[in-house]
């Protein structure tokens, strides 16, 4: 039998850490389930600063429109502002909201608003950014780390409806039949409760 004093002392355990690729989108010092800094409720309560709203599309049907949406998104991300992106291809209500905000005028995507004030489309945003006017205009808005990606939706801003699981149908026991789910949009999606404000 070996003498216990002959055994080597236990090696100090190396702290477990994830590779950079897994931790890139999380804020250091906070658990991964923490709300983003642009969350609807900050530590002091609701954020009263005006919101930047970007109406865009994720469909690549018209390449120029898709590229314009992508470039405006990149400009806003580079300015580190929190953006409430509203993809009109995922929810028809966003298209109706945009038409109402522009009072029926014809429009092309993307369109940017700060609060209820219209800022412009892709060309106006590019010109203001190149002239340095856009950064000044967005000084008082909520900020967000450009590397942040929501853990709930992966940055898509939508999630499958928890009521109908995206099927858009709910079984009503009393009537013993299926009905249209009233919680989700025409695609069976709801706004992400973690990152949409």
From TrEMBL:
Domain Glutaredoxin: 52-117
PROSITE patterns: GLUTAREDOXIN_2
InterPro entries, A to Z: Glutaredoxin, Thioredoxin-like_sf
Protein name listed in UniProt: (wild Malaysian banana) hypothetical protein
PANTHER family: GLUTAREDOXIN DOMAIN-CONTAINING CYSTEINE-RICH PROTEIN CG12206-RELATED, GLUTAREDOXIN FAMILY PROTEIN, EXPRESSED
Gene3D superfamilies: Glutaredoxin
Region Disordered, residue ranges: 1-46
């Amino acid at each position: 039998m070996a003498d216990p004093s002959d055994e080597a002392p236990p090696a100090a355990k190396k702290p477990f850490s994830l590779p950079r690729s897994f931790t890139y989108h999380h804020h250091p010092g906070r658990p991964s389930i923490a709300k983003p800094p642009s969350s609807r409720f900050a530590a002091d309560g609701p954020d009263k600063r005006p919101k930047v709203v970007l109406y865009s599309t994720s469909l690549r049907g018209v390449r120029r429109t898709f590229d314009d949406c992508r470039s405006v998104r990149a400009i806003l991300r580079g300015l580190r502002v929190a953006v409430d992106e509203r993809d009109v291809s995922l929810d028809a209500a966003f298209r109706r909201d945009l038409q109402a905000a522009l009072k029926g005028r014809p429009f092309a995507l993307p369109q940017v608003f700060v609060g209820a004030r219209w800022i412009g489309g892709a060309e106006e945003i590019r010109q203001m950014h190149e002239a340095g006017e856009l950064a000044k205009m967005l000084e008082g808005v909520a900020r967000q780390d450009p590397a942040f990606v929501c853990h709930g939706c992966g940055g898509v801003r939508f999630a499958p409806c928890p009521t109908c699981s995206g099927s858009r149908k709910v079984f009503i026991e009393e009537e013993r039949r299926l009905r249209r789910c009233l919680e989700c949009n025409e695609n069976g999606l709801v706004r992400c409760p973690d990152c949409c404000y």
